[in-house]
Amino acid sequence: MKLVGLLLLLASSARANFLRKAPSSTFSTSIRELSSTTTSCPILTTDGSISIDLVVGTDLTFNLIPSESGTVCTLTKQSSSGIVPVARSYNGKVWERVSGPFSSSLSFDCKSANDSPLFCEVALPELSDSGEEKYVITTAKKTRTPFQRAARFLEHTTFGPRKDEIEELLTPESCTSTWMHKQMYNTPMSLHREYYRSRADDRRREDESVGVIDSPCAANSRWRQAFYTNKDRNRQVTITPIDGHDGWYGFEVDGFLRTTTNNITTENTYTEVDPNGGTYDMCGNQLYLQRGKFPMRFDGKCRNLLEVPLIHLVHDSLAEGRLIDIPYNFDSSEFTTLGSTAASNYGREVVLSESLTSSVCTNLQEGLDPRTPIFGKTKDGVYLLYDPHILLKTNTPDKLISDGGGSTQEETDGKVLCASAPRTFLNEDTCKLSTEASACDWNDAGGTGFATVVCGSPGEVSNTPLSYFESFEVAARDDPTESNDVLEQQRDTIWTMNAVYSPDQLRQRVAWALSQIYAISPGSLVDSIKPTEQYMT
User: Fold this and answer.
1) Which residue among 8, 11, 466, 525 is buried most deeply as judged by most CB within 10 Å?
2) Which of 178-187, 347-356, 446-455, 510-519 has the least mean pLDDT?
3) What is the CA radius of gyration of the chain?
């Protein structure tokens, strides 16, 4: 809960950064010490001056009259050691306790009789005999500008007011009720799950329960020049001389050749790669890659080659049967460079927009070890490595997969699970009866062979990672490639970004308030892999 509270504070601060400085407002204060058993809040003078009446007496039972409309009246205990809050009345409301040492000991009995004004009887704790302590009642009034009133309203209904939202409330055609109606009925719902899935962009060697990997010959296939990625952390690389090519070395990962290079010089002259070959642990992360460094472990410490080896084959026969001829130059418009790799030290990551007709893709045999590298060679001789990523499909209530995902389940021999969701109040109006032979039910292992009800699930959208700068990992039990801490931070990031940027601020704030009534501790949801989507709404 401390973490979520911090996120709420950060979200409110982030949105409030958009708030322009409000004009100064009028603030008046009047102070009067309690001096009779029936006491009203001090009356403010027109010039905003402060008046004080001394207290004499030992009776600490008082009848306090509530504040006037538009003012706040506070009762405090004051001494040389400081001021302690006791109670308050604001905007004409009855007196109430406030947080502090007296929050549990005070009791107010509020009533009116014989047409007398409403008052609240309270017995205050005794003061010390030293005479240093006293009770003080203070009235304050703050006249707010329309801009400030709008900002105050948004403080209660959003995760922090923004300048454009404040100005919208100040327009003649808008008011708080109009704004609230627009938020709840005319603004699309922002789902954490949708935010996550649309940005899920995970390197995967093979199909997972939530989706399949793309194909090297399909349109929008992913390719890279870098020899390694953050997914290779804690794996081993074997460096061996290449027969018939003096001075050239092959870099193998998981027993498969991934690239060749003629540079094995390290940054430290006292740490060298054995020219006769050796096996080393890869120990870096994405930051090393971004700096163009290739880290390996020597004598228990991370050392770097001078540069990240790019994908290169000293001879095409080294990838026989696994080298795809790409009929485009690397700088052609068919390739789209991703992110900041355009001017990187470690080569580019690209998307090939066109599909390929290659015998290599046709002849890639079933059962091929998913760790086997697939290479590409452009028309101008640039070597690339196929970089498989997981693909998620859309199956929302208004955009169903016609067979519930049964065909994909069959094609992957059950590796990818049926996408059809259970029928609930969230999707029952859009569930459909599928007569396709492959149709699957949410609790079936495969196609039923009969008519089957298929349903979508809110937020179950496809991933479109090419549209976003940030991306999220997909937790996998068979091949976890990120630490639990990283996967847990994803959920924090998703919540924060949705709170700061979602247009349906009122809905998000109400959902947050309701979640405090029915709270669930993360510790009660035990899962060693720290999944993300299961936590999303």
Assistant:
1) 11
2) 446-455
3) 34
Residue 60 pLDDT: 78
For tokens 């409403």, the residue is 118
At which residue do the structure tokens 């979520």 appear? 4
CA distances from 109 to 77, 105, 112, 220, 390 (A): 20, 13, 10, 72, 65
Q: Please name the residues in contact with 53: beta carbons below 8 A apart, sequence gap of 6 or more.
A: 32, 33, 35
Cα–Cα distance list, 255 to 235, 247, 251, 371, 508 (Å): 11, 21, 9, 9, 50
Q: Each residue of 175-185: pLDDT tens digit? A: 899 999 999 99
For the chain, the farthest-separated pair of C-alpha atoms sits apart, in whole angstroms, at 111
Long-range interactions of 91-95: CB distance < 8 A, separation 24+: 91/67, 92/66, 92/67, 92/68, 93/66, 93/67, 94/66, 94/118, 94/120, 95/64, 95/66, 95/120, 95/122
CB 265 within 8 A of CB 310: no
| Closest alpha carbon to 404 in 459, 452, 464 | 452
- CA 215 to chain centroid, in Å, comes to 29
C-alpha 433/C-alpha 441 separation (Å) is 11
Tell me how crowded residue 523 is: count the other CB atoms within 10 A of its CB.
6
- Closest to 86 measured CA to CA, from 136, 13, 143, 146: 136
Q: Which residue has the tokens 């039910």?
A: 441
The backbone torsions φ and ψ at residue 40, rounded to the nearest 5 degrees and listed phi first, read: -100, 165
Helices (H) then strands (E): counts for the chain: 10, 25
Is the confidence at residue 343, as pLDDT, over 70? no
Output the CA–CA distances (angstroms, integers) from residue 409 to 151, 348, 479, 519, in the order listed: 52, 34, 20, 36
Comparing CA positions, the residue from 15, 481, 421 lying closest to residue 204 is 481
Query: Tokens 């590796």 — which residue?
Result: 415
- The DSSP-derived string for 99-147 is SSTTTTT---EEE--TTPPPEEEEEPPPPPTTS--EEEEEEEEEE--HH
Q: How far apart are CA 150 and CA 395, in angstroms?
A: 40
13 pLDDT more than 70: no
Query: Which SS3 state, helix, strand or coil, does residue 259 take?
Result: strand
Residue 296, H or E segment: strand 294-298
- Residue 489's Cβ-count burial label (10 Å; 0-12, 13-18, 19+) is middle
Considering the chain, what percentage of its residues have pLDDT values greater than 90? 33
78: how many CB neighbours lie within 10 A of its CB?
Answer: 16
Distance, in Å, from the CA atom of 155 to the CA atom of 19, rounded to the nearest integer, reads 11
Rounded distance between C-alpha atoms, residue 158 and residue 499, angstroms: 9
Sequence-separated (6 or more) residues with CB below 8 Å from residue 157: 180, 183, 505, 506, 509
- State the Cα–Cα distance between residues 390 and 130, nearest whole angstrom: 75
Residue 409 φ/ψ region, left for φ over 0, alpha for ψ in the -120 to 50 degree band, beta for the rest: alpha
